[in-house]
Write a structure and sequence with these properties.
Strand content: under 5%
Shape: elongated
Distance between the termini: 72 Å
């Protein structure tokens, strides 16, 4: 007897389920270990149904990357408190970025979604980085200083280096670096 597949009338709900399943598979197996047929199998649907919602594997990965960047931006916005001292805000921002990256990375290959976005979604990736730079600028009040700070913190926020810098002393090292960076900034009246 042939097994019939259940159709979901709500296409947006189905689309979100497909993105969720893809995100979970990428977190566990990385990009190279994630296939459209694997996503479909995990949802109990045909791979043709996945292709009805996403025209290609690249489009599916782009949807996951867009969601990831959106969640990252929201989390980073929530980490910044204009009333807090610069060093504290920088620390919260870096720890939030790390937390958002680590929550998806059951293995290091899962962080390849970042590189996928850099390569296949250049404008979205640039916008994502511009948002982060604008947050740092809002914290420090100096555009040039914001870029210098982002460069100095890259070792703790770059997905490629994330796992290499993870350890029991990571938070104190981040706090110390953010304090040094905050102290090195020229003083302005609002700080």
């Amino acid at each position: 007897m042939a097994r019939t597949r259940r159709r979901e009338p709500d296409t947006e709900k189905t689309r979100e389920r497909i993105i969720d399943a893809t995100d979970a598979l990428i977190s566990s197996h990385g990009l190279s270990g994630t296939s459209v047929s694997g996503v479909a199998r995990s949802l109990g649907m045909s791979h043709g149904n996945v292709y009805r919602h996403f025209r290609s594997k690249e489009a599916l990965f782009s949807a996951v990357a867009h969601r990831w960047m959106s969640e990252m931006r929201s989390a980073c916005e929530g980490a910044v408190d204009q009333a807090a001292p610069v060093a504290q805000n920088l620390t919260h921002l870096v720890l939030t970025i790390r937390q958002e990256l680590l929550k998806r990375a059951d293995n290091a290959a899962a962080l390849d979604i970042y590189h996928f976005a850099q390569e296949h979604m250049r404008e979205a990736a640039m916008s994502h980085h511009a948002h982060r730079a604008a947050l740092v600028q809002r914290i420090v009040g100096d555009q040039r200083g914001a870029q210098e700070i982002l460069d100095a913190l890259r070792g703790f926020t770059d997905p490629t280096l994330l796992l290499a810098t993870e350890g029991p002393d990571t938070s104190p090292r981040i706090e110390a670096l953010c304090a040094i960076l905050a102290d090195s900034m020229p003083r302005t009246p609002n700080r």
